[in-house]
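Subject: sequence -> structure tokens, single chain

Hey, anyone have a minute? Need the predicted structure for the following. Not urgent.
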Amino acid sequence: MKKILFSALLSFAVLIQNVTIESTALEAISVPLEDAVMLLDTYGRIYVHIQNESSLHITVDKTEPEGIFRYYDADIFNESSDTEKTYLLELSCCEYLVDSGEYASQYTVNIEAADDRKSMYNQNIVIKDPGFENVSGTEYHFYITTELSDHSDYNIIGANEYTTDEGVLLCEQYIKLLYKDILKGDVNEDGVVGISDASFVLSCYASLSSGLEIESDPDLADIDGDGKIQISDAGYILKYYALSATGIEPVWEDIIS
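Reply:
Had a minute. Here:
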């Protein structure tokens, strides 16, 4: 972290200017930083433009010589297909190495469909240091559209990169996330939540306990999302099934809590 602070101070000394990017202001919702990190400048911005009615999850990690640090971890969404909704994530510039002319740090951006984490777009980005680069700042714009599909994937529709009149390096990515409509608790993916799903979870638990691999998606069997497949996950499914059988519409949050 000392190297990052040195880079930021040197940039300030070279530029002797405000550290805010001079670019066209957008109406955007600011995503809060994680508690464990802080920004030394605002030379970088990520804008996520959600084009249709969608629920997404975004994480931003910074890889530095000292390790990997999480800057953002948030659910973002658009309630309407008729209007675009934009989110803003501000970033510090990356650490520039004068001797090599390369960067010692970078950010990793993950954008996922909230209900289908396999539908994910991943990109490594660098926020350039204006103290050493001929830019006033760096902006990444991700234009995200989601589409229901029979498989999880993404398509890059288009990309642009250019420098604006204000000296901002503008990088644009147009992405379509393809997601599957997954029913929580439907471990065997037959379209319903039933006793067979609970049996399937128990089978997965027994295999993993014996050191064997399982063929199914472990995320589907991890009902409470604690990162483990346990007997309790099968119990949640049985409770869900029992409530459904009596005509009650089950709510997973109530069952798991």
